[in-house]
């Protein structure tokens, strides 16, 4: 009985160590709340999901200028300890402007994800 308990605790500790030690980069989606039409108010959204550990920096930008009034949801995790967070900002899209979501995970380099305005 005692050796079974020790084995169980060892396996549990190993499982937690593997799950918490794994680095998973985020999957990033950049989109708008409504179908995009230039000159009409909308919302720019950046959804980052399935990342671990829970260290992430999300910045919404237009022509490389950061939006000041960006809102972020609370960071939440799933059953597998993968985290997700969403950032959004109201905006009125203009033709010729590049809209992006810059993401840094686990203190790594910023990666830029661009909104496809051709839709």
UniProtKB/TrEMBL annotation:
Superkingdom: Eukaryota
Coiled-coil positions: none
Matching InterPro entries: Ig-like_dom_sf, Ig-like_fold, Ig_C1-set, MHC/Immunoglobulin
Signal listed as a keyword: yes
Stretch forming the signal peptide: 1-21
Keywords for the protein's UniProt record, in alphabetical order: Immunoglobulin domain, Signal
SMART domains given in the database record: IGc1 (SM00407)
Residue span, Immunoglobulin C1-set domain: 41-111
Protein name per UniProt: Immunoglobulin C1-set domain-containing protein
UniProt KW Transmembrane keyword: no
Chain ranges passing through the membrane: none
SUPFAM superfamilies assigned to the protein according to its UniProt record, in alphabetical order: Immunoglobulin
